[in-house]
Every structure is written in structure tokens, then in C-alpha cells.
Amino acid sequence: MDDTSAADTQSTYDITNKRGGVLIRFATKANAQNIQYVCHESTHAAMEIFDYIGGRIDCSNQEPFCYLVGWISECIKEALNYRTKKV
């Protein structure tokens, strides 16, 4: 990740083996708590997933995409809460 980046989303997939993933990284904990960064990176991740599955993103097909963005955002929140819990 670039030193000037607040957050970064990367994806990789192998069509032959039908495997892949999306990685979202935040430069700091504060960035991971910033709703603008979370929404921004969640949208990038959702677009990568839609590209992988051949999904269409347009005004007549908003709901699946929006729900996926929300789910990804919740995953970020859960990961942040997991990392900050005191054991």
C-alpha cells in the first residue's frame, strides 16, 4: 500500500480454478473507523465481486449491489471490533 493512501482495496482471482478474494486494508485504525473510507472501500470491493460474478451495476439493478456494499461494511465493522476487543 502506498504511504499516502488512507486505505486500499485489491482483488485477485483465477478463473480456471474459480478461486479468488478481495482484500481491504486501512493505513490506521482511525481510517478503518472513518465511515467515508469504509463506504469508499466497500464500494470498490463490491465492484470487484460484481465483476467476478459477471454482475451488472446500473440504475435498474441497484438493490443487490447496495446490499453487498452494506454487508461488506458490516464485515469491516466486525473485523475492527474483533481486533479491538480485550481478551
Spatial order of the strands forming the largest sheet: 1-2
How many separate domains make up the residues? 1
CA-based shape: globular
Give the SSE order as H and E letters: EEHHH
Low-confidence sequence ranges = none
Instruction: Please tell me the overall pLDDT.
Output: 86
Strand content: 15-25%
Gyration radius over CA? 14 Å
Tell me the span between the first and last alpha carbons. 30 Å
Tally of individual helices: 3
Structural class, by secondary structure, is: alpha+beta
Q: State the helical fraction.
A: 40-55%
Largest sheet: 2 strands, antiparallel
Total number of beta strands? 2
Provide a descriptive summary of the structure in words.
The protein is an alpha+beta fold and 87 residues long. The chain has one domain (7-82). Helix content is 53%, strand content 18%. It has a two-stranded antiparallel ribbon. The chain starts with 6 loop residues before the first strand and ends with a helix. The relative contact order is 0.15. The mean pLDDT is 86.
Topology of helices and strands:
Elements: E1 7-14, E2 19-26, H1 29-32, H2 35-53, H3 62-84
Antiparallel strand pairs: 1-2
Helix pairs in contact: 2-3
In short:
With 87 residues, the chain is α+β, with helices and mostly antiparallel strands.
Structure keywords:
87 residues; alpha+beta; two-stranded antiparallel sheet
